[in-house]
Structure prediction request, 281 residues.
Amino acid sequence: MKKIHYENIVEQVAEICKKSNYNLGEDVYSAFKLALQTEQSEIGKEVISQLIENADIAKAEQVPMCQDTGTAVFIVEVGQDCHIVGGSLVDAINEGVKKGYGEGYLRNSIIYNPLNRKNTGDNTPAIVHIDLVEGDSITIHMTAKGGGAENMSDLKMLKPSDGIEGVKKYILSIVKEAGPNACPPLVVGVGIGGNFERCAYLAKKSLFRPLGVRHEDPVVAELEEELMSEINRLGIGPQGMGGSTTALDVKVEVESCHIAALPVAVNLNCHASRHQTITLT
Prediction:
C-alpha cells in the first residue's frame, strides 16, 4: 500500500493553482497561433494577437492572465492501492487552493452561500470529483474555471426523437446565445448521455482533454469536427468582434443513458482555458 502524505498534496495543489493562472498551456497557446493564421477578420487577428501577448506577459511576469482566476475544479484519479497519510484528500486539496491562491495573489471568487453572497476569502471550497482507479498513485487534474463562460453554459433534457440533429441544433443555439459574453474564442465542452447530473459532469470533464486531441471514437470525433466548423461559421469571432474563430476546439464526451432520455450539457470555456495535471506517487 503506497502512502501519500497530506502535506505533499497541499504543496502540489498550491503550485498548480498558481501555474494554471500564470502559464497558458501549450495546447491552448498553439491553438492561438493556428487561429492567427486562419482567422479571416483583421479585427479578429488583432484580438488574437493581443491574447497571445497577454499570455506571454502573464508567463514572463508570473501574474494572472485574467482577473477572474476562477473556481478551482478538480478531477482526481485515486489509485485503490494508495493511502493518504495525515488527513483527507478533499481537505488537502482545499488547503492547497487556499495556500496557492493566497501566495499567488489570485482573486478570491467563491462565496459561502448564493443567497447571502459573502466571500469565503480564500477561494475555497474547491469543486472536487473523485474517480477510483487501479494503481497506487494519485493524478490530480485542475482547472481554474472562469465565471463568465460558466454563466453562459446550459443543460437540456432533449427527447430521443430529437436525434443527433436536435443535439447539434441545441449546442449551436447555446454558443450563439452566449455571443461575446463567454469571452471567445471558446473551448466548447459537450456531455451527451448519462442522466441530469452526469451529462453536466461529462461536459466539464471534456474540457480537461488537451486542445487538438480528438475523441477516440471516430463517430464522436467526427461530431466534434462538424460542430467546430458550424460554430466558427456563426461569425461571432474573437471577443465577439466578428470573424471566423469563435471556437478554438470542441470536446464531446458520451455515455450510456436511459431509453427515454437524451441529456445534453454544454459547458463553455473562455479563451483562458487553464488546466494543469500532476501525479503523486
